[in-house]
Amino acid sequence: MKKGFSAIAFARGLAGVVVLLVVWEGFARSGMYSTAMTPPIESVARTAWRMLADGSLVENALATLLRVFIGLAISFAIAVPLGVLMARYWVAERIFQPVLSVLLPIPSLAWVPLFVLWFGIGNIATILVVIYAAFFPMVYSVWTGVRAVNPLWLRAATVMGADEAMLFRKVIWPGSLPYVINGLRLSFGRAWIGVIGGELLASPQLGLGEIIFNAKEFLEAGVMLSTLVGIGAIGVLFERFVFQAIESVTVRRWGMDSGSSA
Amino acid sequence: MRRALSIGLPLATFAAIAAAWEILAVYGGFPPKLVPGLGVIVETFFRLAGNGILLAATVATLYRLVAGFLFAAMIGVVVGIAMGRRQWIEDTLLPLVTFFYPIPGLAYAPLFVLWFGLGDFPTILLVGISSCFTVIINTWKGVKTVKPVWLRSAQVMGAQDRQMFWRVVVPGALPYILVGLRLGLAQAWRLLIAVEMLMSVQRGLGWLIFGAQTFLNTDVMLASIATIGMIGILLERQLFTRIERLTVVRWGMVTA
Fold first, then answer.
1. Do B17 and B120 fall within a single domain?
2. Strand ranges (E), chain A
3. Which of A24, A193, B92, B215 is least surrounded, with the fewest CB atoms within 10 Å of its CB?
4. pLDDT at A200 over 80
């Protein structure tokens, strides 16, 4: 599906972006709203540059990312063993699967006010939201992935004398990795939305969501727009580079990317 | 034995969770306002259900969901098909769509409050805009994957443009369009609950949770969360499974 670089496609894409910017600029300068609310591009760019130069954007983005990583790590520490257990042992599946399917349809952000009530505003409530948001894609991916491991491989390894630990390390884990990585990707997407929401609602110190929330109080639309672009850029960065890199050094090198096996 | 276990084990799990909660509530030493007993939660749920508060909140939330989702579905399907059918539209819009797609809709909420004030209109608009990208991307992919052989054979058999569109392109892309709509609705639903908390709408399930926080009504929050979960299950299991069964499954394009 991927074509090579095409000059005409690039020109058209550029034209789309330019049209959007021109429409925005016209709107901003028309005086329909005050320029504090719809700042012209030049002033947004200046704000973005200031936030980059004084390090506040980087500092807040790091705070947000730190929350995401802590949340993801805790989430995986629970989800991976649980998913494996559920896929390998029928009793575990019957115990946990109904609980998961009751909790799954509840949006993670619905819990924020409750978490705030129990744990106060700040980091704990925000990280709990990340854990909750990231948990379900991960546990379902691991569960599916382990079940999708070719039974023939399992039997072959058992016949050749692999014990349960070795079976897991050498067959089940690599066999289900395409699914696990896909789960990681979905989890990051969910966690990224969850952390912004958590920061908006549970107001911890620092964080991209926190900048946006505070900027509203001072009518700083330029700050909000710059932060929005930063949020989008970090999301794309992880999706495009980090996860594709992880995929290419693991599953694609082993010749089993999820495109062909799933 | 296996059948008895398959019913008994989940029941035992829920019983264990309920018991653990009750012990925590009674002997945990937490204030009962923060950790109410099960009896209180169930009672609150039925009280709220009985006096119509839950119903009014649910209706208000569903109204916003339907309005926002219809917006997303219309824009998404039209733009997605246009992108799939015309190369210049794809070239022009794809960079913008890929840029806006990964920005969490919730991050726009304070900006929308600034621009449009509080209430229903910005809530619906935000939910609609931010869930339309999922529909666009899936519809576009769907149109792209319509088999060229189908297009050419329809053309050879003398199909007009309009016939070609309604008889070949749309049904051919429908499995993807339905996936896009399903994902879009799920996204709209998750987003809406959170946006209601930030937009201080008149009524609604998200607002009910957020408002209860102020008065330390943990029981009201848990009752609302339970309602949200139930509606989520209904939306996912009932609505889309039915639509799929009536269309793409019946046409033999995907297996149920």
1. no
2. none
3. B215
4. yes
Single pTM value for the model? 0.84
Question: Is B199 found in the same domain as B85?
Answer: yes
Shared domain for B17 and B131, answered yes or no, is no
Please answer yes or no on whether A197 and B17 come within 8 Å at the CB atom. no
Residue B24 structural domain = 1-30
- In whole angstroms, give the CA distance from residue B46 to residue B54: 9
CB-based burial, B219-238: b 16+ in 10 Å, e otherwise: bbbbbbbbbbbebbeebbee
- Asked if B178 reaches chain A (Cβ–Cβ under 8 Å), the answer is no
* Cβ contacts of B21 on chain A, cutoff 8 Å: none
| Residue range B203-249, pLDDT digits in tens | 888 888 888 888 888 889 999 999 998 888 888 777 777 777 777 77
Is residue B256 assigned to a domain? no
CATH numbers and ranges of domains, chain A: 40-261 (1.10.3720.10)
Is residue B254 assigned to a domain?
Answer: no
Confidence at residue A261, expressed as pLDDT on a 0 to 100 scale:
36
* Option in B13, B92, B209 nearest A12 (CB): B92
Q: Which residues of B touch A97 (CB under 8 A)?
A: 10
Question: Number of structural domains, chain B?
Answer: 2
Q: Inspect the interface and report whether the beta carbons of A201 and B197 lie closer than 8 Å.
A: yes
The pLDDT score that the predictor gives to residue A258 is 47
Query: Is residue B16 located within the same domain as residue B115?
Result: no
Same domain, B2 and B119: no
Pair (B75, B176) in one structural domain: yes
**Distance, CA of A114 to CA of B193 (rounded, Å):** 14
Q: Tell me the average pLDDT of chain B.
A: 86
> For chain A, what is the mean pLDDT?
85
* pLDDT at residue B137 in the model: 92
Higher pLDDT pick, A113 / A216: A113
| Type of residue at B151 | L
Region class of A203: left (phi > 0), else alpha (psi between -120 and 50), else beta: left
| B106 vs A12, A91, A193: nearest CB | A193
Contact B107 A231 (CB under 8 A): yes
